[in-house]
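Archive entry. Fields below.
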Amino acid sequence: DIQMTQSPSSLSASVGDRVTITCRASQGINNFLAWYQQKPGKAPRSLIYAASSLQSGVPSKFSGSGSGTDFTLTINCLQPEDFATYYCQQYSSYPFTFGPGTKVEIK
Amino acid sequence: EVQLLESGGGLVQPGGSLRLSCAASGFTFSSYAVAWVRQAPGKGLEWASVITGSGSNTYYIDSVKGRFTISRDNSKNTVYLQMNSLRAEDTAVYFCAKIASPYCTGGSCEIDYWGQGTLVTVSS
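PREDICTED_STRUCTURE:
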């Protein structure tokens, strides 16, 4: 199975900050990586697929990059509604696996 | 507007059974694969099962293989997850998720929409 790791596990940031979250796969996954946002008690929301493509309706403040084993999610100009947990997920090969999540908290 | 509405969750004893349903609307249902993703309380996400748009192909993670069965009725725009021999470790919120293609193969299985989830609690 492909193991996904994320760093940091949590971070504190202020409104207006830019934050970057890193996701690493235990083996190469091409660009078959997605990012999701989840708020407490809510369903995940799809943000990015194919490492860097925005899902419909997702604002351009979110961006993704990377290929192979190393990926990043960047959130520009953090707003109160962006404080949440972010997960990466590989869909290169079964079983499709998620990272453990990165919690973005208000400083 | 794409909508996915799960139902069927609840409290069940270990060894018991439960059937989850995911009723879909807002898209051509038979043209898209659908997955079940679960989340144990306070934990991360786990991809449990997926079924192709036609229903001809399915996939299960090892921990549920032989106990869970995913199916769909394209005439009712509904996907089901029959869960048998339930264990305490199956306790989770189960989310239904629409895949952006009819199939779900390596490299082509992006989730674009999620349902709100239904809670399954396995406890005596």
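CURATOR_NOTE: Chain A has no helices and eleven strands.
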